[in-house]
Amino acid sequence: MEVEAKEADFHRLNRRQVYLYRLAGDDVLAKKVENQSKAPVMVVFRFLVYAIIATAVIKERSKIETTSEANLGIEQSLENQIIEHTPFVLTFNNISNVQHVQTWLALVMERVRTAGEQTYSNELSLNSYNRVVPRAGVCMDAAAVILTFKRVRMTPEYQLTTTDRFRRLYPQAWMKSTIEPGEDGMEAEETEPIDVGDGLKWFHTPACGPECPLGRNSGYRGAGGYVAVVTASPNNVTYVHLADDNGTSEPNETIYHCDDSLKRSGTVLFNEFLLGDPFFDNQLGSLTAEFFFYNANLQSMSHVAVKFHFTAAGNLAQKSIRSDTMLLDVYHPWIRFFEYSYLVFTCGYFCELIYRGMKDFPGYFKDVWTYVNACSIIGSFSCFTLWYDYTPQLSSFLKNDAFLYDREFEAREAKFLMYIFASSFATFTIFLRLLQFLASTESRVVLLMKTIYSTLGNIGLYLAYLMVILLGFQTFAMAYFSQDTNEFADFFHAFVSMSSMFMGKIEVMDGVKSTWKVPFMWLFLFFFFFLGVQTFNAIINYSYNRASEDMKAVFEREEYEKQRKELQKRLHRKKTSLSQMFWRLVHPKSAAAATEDSAETAPEGDATSSLEALETPAVVEVQSPDLGSLDPAVREKVQEYLGRDDFQGTRDGLCTMTMYVMMVFCYIWFVYVNVRVEQKGALRESIRSAVEAVEVPYADQTGVDFGWHDIQSLSDVVSWITQGLPLLIFNSTAAETFSSGVARGFIGEKSICIKTWNCLVSGRSAAGPGNSIVRITQRRSISTTNEGAQTEFTPLDDRFIGGYTGNGSDAVPNARVMTPDAGFHETIPAWSAFSVSEDREQNFSLTYNYTTESGSEMIQFCESLEQGVPGSYQRTGGIVCLLDADSQIFEEQMSTMVENGFFSKSSATFVVELVTHNANRDMLSFTTLELRMTPTGRVVKVIEIQSSALFGLEVAVDRLGEIISRIVPGVIYMFFVVVFTVMLYNELKREHTRRSPFSQGGKKSFLRNVPLLMLKDSFRIADALSFAMSFYSFLLYILWLEQDAEMSSQLNGDFSSFVDFASDLVFQEKLYNRLSSLNMLIIFCRPLRFMREQAQIKRLFQTIEHARQDIFWFLCALSVFLTSCTLLAHVSFGPNFTQCSTLGGSLLYCFNFMVGSYDGFWTLYEANATMAVIFFFPYLLLTYCVCMNIFFAILDRFYLSADVPPLNFKQKLKPVFSKICRCIEWDDDFVVEEDPSEAKKEGPMSRAARVEVTAQEIKDIKMRGTDADPNTRTGNALTLTSVCDPDERMNAVIRWSREEAKGIVDEFQRLLAKKQEAKNIDMFIKQLVMKRFQAEAERSKKEMEEAFRQMQYHTMVHELMAVRDQQTLSRYILLLEQQIQKKMVEQYGLSLEVQHLRGELDNMRYTKADLKQMSSARSDTVAEENQSSLGASEDEDDEGIEEEDEALVVTEGPARDPNSVAEFDDDPKENGATANMLEKLGFS
Questions:
Q1: Long-range contacts at 5-12 (CB < 8 A, ≥ 24 apart)
Q2: Which helix or strand (DSSP H or E) is residue 1276 part of?
Q3: Beta strands at 939-949 and 923-933: parallel, antiparallel or unpaired
Q4: What is the value of pTM for the model shown?
Q5: How is the chain split among helix, strand and coil, in percent rounded to 5?
Q6: 1056-1086 pLDDT, tens per residue?
């Protein structure tokens, strides 16, 4: 019974499902796209504030720019140390053998030892400010460098090394190929003592790792080895202490051993140590030189490891310089407040994470953003934990002499590097979470996220597929190409090289010389770079189109809601004029009261109001049509038609195009003849090459010269200025070989020229006789006592002391002992008007002895000028020196500057200003040579040459033709600009008149409507910008002409004023050139306006218009992702990678990945090996293969492809030439028109169309899968009239369904209206919607149970009555059948008798002839009757059809529930038909 009941229930449910489909449609059970509730914009803004605060805190705590500058200054100082000069310059990067290493060590230590001999550097420092600090046991007035030697043990076991064939040639060989720096060589490392001679031995120090005792010299990273401590002191010899744990610790200050912390077996001279054996022998596997630098300007401590790695092949396999800097002054007065805010925000988001996790468990943990949020919070809390664990350790480091011990420094350095790692991870995840918040506010971002989610699986499988093939190519490359280049020397290098080639960088193959190079590259690039990358494009394109199809309903709903809100806003907004707004702003209360009074007291028959009503036409605002109920395809066409004006602007005729072409031609001509780009470029290269060609000898090396690019330190700057500048000025072209006469007053017979024709302009000195030719401006930094802090605001407890030297009142902080002076905290650019590190209170003056026939006098040529006073570079002030044009006086002035302290350690910036004139081109060139020092002693060199093509109005008569050719094009151009400006104004006026809406108060003002009209057409904005820049640039040109006209008067003035004048002149022209270039770009974009009416161009504009939202939000999401990766790269790689040392540089570096232009993997690997592997490969894949392909997918989806008619030139030329050339048929049109009744041929489907069809097929398959029996429904549902004949009961069902549907729709519309008014969607759903629907469900359940009870009752009661009725009816039918049969028999017999009687009667009355005639007449009558009866039957059929139609009409009446029990008559006898039937059957 149960089986039969279940089967009956199954069939009953199946029938109900069929009825449901017929009533509600096929997709009633389809999964609907949920419209997720959007978060308020304030949520995004709040998190953005949180991200900015977190970034500011982490950036200030890490100080990447400062640490990068410290590392860069030290590394460049060591790398640029010149080892040899002949036959070519040999530096650190060219070191290839042990002899080079020895020479490099000797020269570096010599630079450190002699640094204090010059007044431009601190003692024992590199690049003036980087003090080499001593180590434990070394005197504080000395410098120390730790050398760690790793020697490979020799073994005679030829079976393991050379085999028996070569044992006679090599009796002993290395046990291991090499021992890397910092590696414990175990049994392969040589540990036997080295016999130095004279009974002195150098013992091996065993490895102890991180557990080394404090003060023990255990080598690089505690790995042991032969350790030596090199000590140097000013003006003394350099010693090498051979470290030995069991050696003597007795101090000896003569060899700079001042403490028992240093244990040594002996001491040798550094020069003897570098001679070779027994220190630098054939067993040397690696050498590490460790420097520790202290920079008082930055208050930083740097650990520099210089590693040389030798191999068994006999070559120097690898060399590197690694600098890690730890800042000592980390105090900041206001950053802690931001840090507290950062902590509060993080705690708030952590609480939110816990709350949502408990509330929405387990669904909340299925979202990937939950884990990103958790990682972000963990990273932020890790930053706080590590920082507040690091600061106490740093405080203890600052107070005592812990900086002398390697272990103390390395422990704090490791803690700070952990903070850098955590902070980079935190900033990356924080900004990555912005995508989540953007997705919660904008559906287009959700589309991008879904696209990426859906591609991850396919991309992962595809990458796995590619990796298998890539390994095959990699194995082949390692086998064939490893002999030619190191790019394939090992597995990791080969993998990186293959990955680079996958992205199109084939530079890794440059060193390959194999014949397989070309076939390998062709096959690899074809398979990976072409096919592989395009497969990524296909995967992402399909995912984007599929996600777009899935979210199409969401976008349509949002568009409908947007239109509805705009309509409501338009209906309810109050329009106010500008005067009313201003009055309300000034008098808010009085204006409001006046408005209310005027509204209440205004009489109905007021004459003024009546007049205004007559003057102002009453305009009824027409509501926009509701497009929500239309079919999507129809709605798209309607929207395209309604917005047709957005894609077309005012059409430009041929005359307008011709005028525009003439305007562009005149502008190009005007710019070309005035800017003179080629001539300026030639002059710039000529002067630049002359400056770079000057070479002067080093101050500390005789016979060695250096040029402009080789300047590395302040000492080199002084040498180049004092020796190179005279060479540049006086030795470029000798005065006696140059005879050009006077050229417009700039040069004379004794001209001094650079490269023959670029003659220096000189002028009289304002301080006395003589002519000046060069101006040098110097800006100095503050020099104060080193207090262990950068600023005076740093608390005493946070300052670097480093212990004390001496006792009692004579105790001096070790920081001050090492570096007495500080104060140069930041770089001072030449253009900077103010810097906290600049010394503005100086009063410097220099004079020289000027001798004439009448006697001698002291002439001032150097003086201090205040900021804003003319006479210095860009009026920024400083020490300004004017050098004479006479070579002897020039040399005397230079000597005076050197001897009287013009050059000092405080010199921060030098600017050399030269003014030259080229008579061939009549151009004035302003040359500035800037030499800028950094706090680490690094020199930044800048050459800037700006030229100006002079106009020469004072000789206008002689150059009239040239002047006209330079001015007339500009005048014509400005005329056209004015014409087009007027045309733009008229166009806006016409558009305003045509499109401006009317309000109740009158017409909207033109000025208020201008922004809207400009936004309607982007070319109007471009035109307005172009015209504005044209007017402004022409004004600049006029001002420049005015300045050029003052040239003659300026030449008669003093030289310093003329230099300022030349600087202003070239700056004015430089500004004009920049505006002109920007204007030129806009001008050449405007011709697109002329072509936008063409069908092809119009399609492109429509494509961009349709895709603008997706492109905009894609760019927003890409910017967020790029920002997060930029911060990650900046914090992780910035300290040791120059390109990522600043945020701007990091952004540019990360952006280059998107276009496939990057420096490679190994630069990042050298900066931070761990983060390089984590960052490089995923970021390269995401940006180059995913992000760019998403952009292509957007354009591909919205691209409008359609057949466009060919261009008919005759129709275009007809308005102009039709009346001139009448012999031409201008109306010819050879385009064959298509038959409008013929169906258009469908072309190949686009990707988006194929995805749409596929999505619809998948949807249909899913719908068929939801049926109980898939075979019962093979087609779409039919209408009721096609299935059954509607009767009264069916009509009742239809009426009931309509009323129920109307009630449900009304209810949901009321809820939708309340939802839009609700502030909190979640509370609205919980408190109102859920409660109401729970009550409705309870009521429906009760009604259902009551109906079920009634159905059971009526089934039991009325079933018996129905059986009785059927029995009675069957008996009645049988009785009627018998009576009918009896009557029919009687009727038939009677009809036969009647017929016989009629025949006999006719025979008796008529003859045979009469009977025959009557028979023929009767046949004609029968035919006529048949014809008339046929017509009557047709009329009856029509009337029957009408009656049937009337029977099908649904009569209006009270609704009846079809689920209710059928109603039966209580008394059948009351029915007349039933009573008659019972009476005939014999029932009483």
A1: 10/1268
A2: none
A3: antiparallel
A4: 0.78
A5: 60, 15, 30
A6: 889 999 998 888 888 888 888 888 888 888 7
